[in-house]
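Course assignment 3, question 2. Fill in each field.
Student: A.L.
Task: Predict the tertiary structure for the chain below.
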Amino acid sequence: EAVRVELAAGAYINQTDEGGWSALHLAAHNAHMAVLETLIAQPAIDVNSRNKWKSTPLSLAAAKGHYDCIQALVRHPQIDIDARADYYGRTALIEAARNGHLDAVRLLVEHGAD
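Answer field:
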């Protein structure tokens, strides 16, 4: 509810901190589904935004194995499922596999991850 109030008051949805982390990065990284769903429902959201290390919200969720977050993100029409983090060069699929999140690996492959 707080996110909806802030957005209605004119908050910039893609605002980042000094490390390049947006609200969407934080929601995906910490598995805050209500916040993530509220954010990705907004037309102005940059679902492929990158933080200082060039990680996307999807790659952060995949690294942590946050299945519900991954599922919501891969359904977004603008998601770049194979985006590579420039810092490590890893995709969301590589992050999920690297951390042993087999259910996330399957989900990403089912949605076309290379």
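Instructor remarks: The chain has one domain: 2-110. Residues 102-110 form the longest helix (9 residues).
Grade: pending
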